[in-house]
Amino acid sequence: MEVTDVRVRKISDEGKMKAIVSVTFDNEFVVHDIKIIEGQNGLFIAMPSRKIGEGDFRDIAHPINSETRAKLQEKIFTEYEKVKNEQE
Asked: What exactly does this protein do (predicted)?
């Protein structure tokens, strides 16, 4: 499965959430509301989730292994930097 499109839908300079993106796989399946978050060790992606119980969240969709997460994160960060630089 290949990432065929990454769309940065919202960029924010305020707060820890830096952007919200949508990712399309094989021109057939899309995942919305992936967040780019500024953490203590730099940027990371947070998959779409829903609240279950008091303060607990569960991912709705997520990569099964770390290699897939790294590949997805790399594509998302590349597009985020491109869009961010175009806005400056």
From this structure: Could be involved in septation.
Query: Which whole-number Å values give the CA distances from 36 to 27, 30, 48, 78, 88, in the listed order?
Result: 22, 17, 11, 12, 18
**Model confidence over 9-65: pLDDT tens digits?**
888 888 999 999 999 999 999 999 999 999 999 999 999 999 888 878 888 989 999
Cα gap 19→11, rounded to integer Å: 4
Beta bridge partners of 34: 21
Helix, strand, or coil (residue 37): strand
Residue 71, classified by CB atoms within 10 Å of its CB into exposed (0-12), middle (13-18) or buried (19+), is middle
Instruction: Show the domains of the chain with their CATH numbers.
Output: 3-86 (3.30.1120.40)
